[in-house]
């Protein structure tokens, strides 16, 4: 974060209709119960907590298209989240969003784009989330959230927040990818998106990858958002995910990433998503996420 004295607003978004596996709506409460408030107190950070409530709706999985599961429900929650994030950002507060599945990044980033003219994105995820209705194998919107923020996909999603401008692909850096669909691979190459796979991390080292991610996402941008999916971490360390992919980030690699982001002073917002307590082992994933948020906000070993 650019100023360590900036107050933090924690937005909890208990939403899981962007994914096929239910349970991530329980993720925000699990992180709070694992000690997040005490962690912020130990860092002497001013903070507030509030929940983004659903507008009333009736679930309709195929309410619009079988290629876009729960489209109407997604539109409702992301539109409300965009308004909340914009309000927080324009007041000079650091938004820390707790999801929920990764579809909530549609609302988060839509709100941020109303405040920042040129937003950079660091997307830490086992997946690239760059599918569209034409390429999706599942119809799950959490696998389309980055594509939507690049202006690709259903107009009802790309227009959330009321803006025509989109994130510039050159300002996006994906870190930790290891499961990329064919259509996503083509899009990454076509748009010139920087994507550091686990092969790159193995070969170059986490420190080098994060240095590059920080440099690219902050070059010519006026804000940088971290979108962090728990499945970027190896599932043996963080089992609380409905989309586990072996061979992810180690405990120290992911802490180093958070520590380097804090030291860089580039972050203006962050979200933590896809924590599913139904798959956890005695809350250890939620406790790990509390520790990672601590590192992101300035906690150090010494």
TrEMBL record:
The record's keywords, sorted A to Z, are: Arginine metabolism, Hydrolase, Manganese, Metal-binding
UniProt pathway annotation: Nitrogen metabolism; urea cycle; L-ornithine and urea from L-arginine: step 1/1
* Assigned protein family: Belongs to the arginase family.
Q: What CDD domains has UniProt attached to this entry?
A: Arginase
Which protein are we looking at? Answer: Arginase
Gene symbol of the encoding locus: rocF
Q: Which domain of life is it from?
A: Bacteria
Uppermost EC category: hydrolase
**What does this protein need as cofactor?**
Mn(2+)
| Pfam families tied to this protein | Arginase
Q: What is its EC number?
A: 3.5.3.1
Catalytic reactions of this protein: L-arginine + H2O = urea + L-ornithine
UniProt cross-references to InterPro entries, sorted A to Z:
Arginase (IPR014033), Ureohydrolase (IPR006035), Ureohydrolase_dom_sf (IPR023696), Ureohydrolase_Mn_BS (IPR020855)
Cofactor: binding details: Binds 2 manganese ions per subunit.
- What organism is this sequence from? Paenibacillus polygoni
- Transmembrane intervals: none
Give the GO molecular function terms: arginase activity
């Amino acid at each position: 974060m650019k100023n360590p004295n900036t107050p933090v607003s924690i937005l909890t978004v208990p939403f899981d209709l962007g994914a096929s596996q239910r349970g991530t709506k329980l993720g925000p409460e699990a992180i709070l119960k694992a000690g997040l408030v005490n962690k912020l107190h130990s860092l002497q950070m001013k903070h507030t907590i509030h929940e983004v409530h659903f507008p009333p709706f009736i679930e309709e999985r195929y309410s619009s298209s079988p290629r876009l599961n729960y489209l109407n429900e997604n539109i409702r929650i992301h539109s409300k989240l965009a308004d909340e994030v914009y309000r927080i950002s324009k007041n000079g507060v650091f938004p820390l969003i707790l999801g929920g599945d990764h579809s909530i990044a549609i609302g988060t980033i839509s709100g941020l784009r109303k405040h920042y003219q040129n937003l950079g994105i660091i997307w830490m995820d086992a997946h690239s989330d760059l599918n569209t209705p034409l390429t999706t194998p599942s119809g799950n919107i959490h696998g389309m959230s980055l594509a939507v923020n690049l202006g690709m996909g259903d107009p009802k999603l790309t227009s959330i927040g009321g803006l025509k401008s989109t994130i510039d692909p050159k300002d996006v850096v994906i870190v930790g990818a290891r499961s990329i669909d064919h259509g996503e691979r083509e899009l990454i190459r076509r748009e010139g998106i920087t994507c550091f796979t686990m092969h790159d991390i193995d070969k170059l080292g986490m420190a080098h990858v994060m240095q590059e991610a920080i440099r690219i996402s902050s070059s010519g941008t006026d804000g940088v958002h971290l979108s962090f999916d728990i499945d970027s971490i190896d599932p043996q360390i963080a089992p609380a995910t409905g989309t586990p992919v072996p061979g992810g980030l180690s405990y120290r690699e992911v802490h180093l990433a958070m520590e380097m982001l804090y030291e860089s002073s580039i972050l203006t917002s962050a979200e933590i998503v896809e924590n599913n307590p139904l798959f956890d082992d005695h809350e250890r994933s939620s406790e790990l996420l509390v520790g990672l948020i601590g590192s992101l906000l300035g906690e150090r070993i010494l």
